[in-house]
Amino acid sequence: MVDPVLLWGVIVLAFVGSITPGPNNLMVMASAAAFGWRRAVPHMLGIMFGFGIMNASVTAGIGAVILEVPILLGIVKYGGAAWLFWLAIKMARATLQKSDKSDATKGTAARPFTIIEAMLFQWVNPKGWAIALAVAGGYVELSPSIAVRTILISVIFMAFTPVANGTWMAAGEVLRRVFDDPKSGKVFGLIMAALIAATALMIVLDPTRLS
Description:
mainly alpha, about 0% strand
């Protein structure tokens, strides 16, 4: 038996949580802007499957364990922030090297995330953890069956990933065409790197910004 009111609550939260700004959406937009919409699709698929697995794990019981061990939340927060800083630096370096066609920079050419890399990132994505923990704790009465809750919540969030990420990827593709010349593209790349770094900084300075 599934509570229809709570089910709608999960659907609304999944949509809002998936489409609002966060590390995943900023990165797929930047990826689409830098490499094109098609090359960013594996990144989006990695987010969908990675968050689906992580969300299912939290709903199934890992979330309760993490809440009982505060240090684990700290590891997620600071580990996620560190990874975002690293990504921002990597993006900025790739942007600055973009116009350099020498052999010295060919080996360091930037590339979009693979499916596996995007899946692994979900485990240190503070926004993802905040949403997963909130859903797991707030919708216990969605169904008396843990298996049913786990499947429903995971599938609903996975279903919204292509919609949400796809919207941001489309925006990135538009920006890719607008900032087509090298100078504008370089400015845009640096702005995206700064936004990702700012997201990481907000996570470190204010834990309430995990969501």
